[in-house]
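Entry for FE2/S2 (inorganic) cluster complex. Fields follow.
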Amino acid sequence: MCPSPNELKALTAKTRGRRRALIQVLQDIQDRFHWLPPEALEHVAEALGVPLVQVYGVATFYRSFSLSPRGRHICTVCLGTACHVRGGGAVLDEFERKLGVAAGGTTPDGAYTLERVNCLGACALAPLAVVDGRYYGQMTQAKVEGVLAEIKKDRAA
Ligand code: FES
């Protein structure tokens, strides 16, 4: 989903000319659209009076910002050493099968983005998956369907 010019104006209205608000504005756009479209970055640069190169610098520095479209739900599977040796690869395979998208991709309906990472710093929970910020430790292939069903249930609520 891409923001309309009016949505961008609304998101930057209170911060016009306030350079220090850059990260907050980018966070607001990321929260609303799940990524930072190029036209949004150009609008932010103009509204805040910040060089576009600086806006891109911040947008690419923080891992929480994405310059490509992401799904409404983020599924992250760890394939760091501890998770890998305890079956993280099979868990990732199952997410790929169930979602019909390879790691790094987003489902065509924009609902899910599947990512793989190398260690989330919670190796005792290996193998680990994180979905929308919720940690699922000791993951197995068999648990993937339940995790995805939980998301759908939350979405319906
Ligand atoms: S290797 Fe997966 S959390 Fe550390």
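NOTE: The pocket of FE2/S2 (inorganic) cluster is lined by residues 78, 80-83, 119-123, 126, 128 (CB under 6 Å).
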